[in-house]
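User: I'm preparing a small set of examples for a lab meeting where we compare how different chains pack in three dimensions. I only have the primary sequence for this one, and I'd like the structure in token form so I can line it up with the others. Please keep the answer compact; I'll paste it straight into my notes.
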Amino acid sequence: MRVIGLGAGGHAKVMLDIIQRMGSIKVDGLLDPDRSLWNTTVMGTKVLGDDGLLPLMVSEGLKKVFIGLGSTGDCIPRVRLWKYARGLGLDVIWVIDPSATISPGAHIGLGVTIMPQAIINADASLGDDVIVNTGAIVEHDCVLEDHVHVATGAKLASSVKVGAMSHVGAGATVLQCIKIGRGAIVGAGAVVTRDVADHAVVVGTPAREIKGESRLTCAI
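Assistant: Understood. Below is the structure token output for the 220-residue chain.
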């Protein structure tokens, strides 16, 4: 399988590392809008130019990409990139580290990224373009809607529902049966003991809402 990576920063570096361990994918190059990266290499893979090259690549037979742009509380650039690629008819591939543990009963959507030592348990459901980062745990019967990012070491107990485009920060814990709204942000290390509203930002132990809204309220 031959693919192009969209993004050439730190997240792309980890993706390339996982892809090397997967062993079945040949990455032909990366695209990134940062001109200073053009004609450099990331993990031995050349940065060819920006995303404007994609239509030409599609006309020349490109069919598959991976999203190498991460999200740290603002997934909108990643969602826009996803929509751009899908609008060109491209498939966004799974990038799943061989060390991850995934129940055969879990549902995994399109273009999902699952990083080293992550755990996805029975009857969990991951929507499209979800990231489950290194060492994160998604327990049984959890539902993660499209474009959710569960950051490094975060833990979702059973039957948690996370709305689309939400971010669960590094090391956070979400107790069982909690609902996290669309476009919400759970701060790093927070312990969530009650439901979180759409677009809310919560921090602390137990987690409490702070003033203002997440940046994910804007239209995409």
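A couple of notes for your slides: The radius of gyration is 17 Å. Residues 215-220 have pLDDT under 50 and may be disordered.

User: Perfect, thanks.
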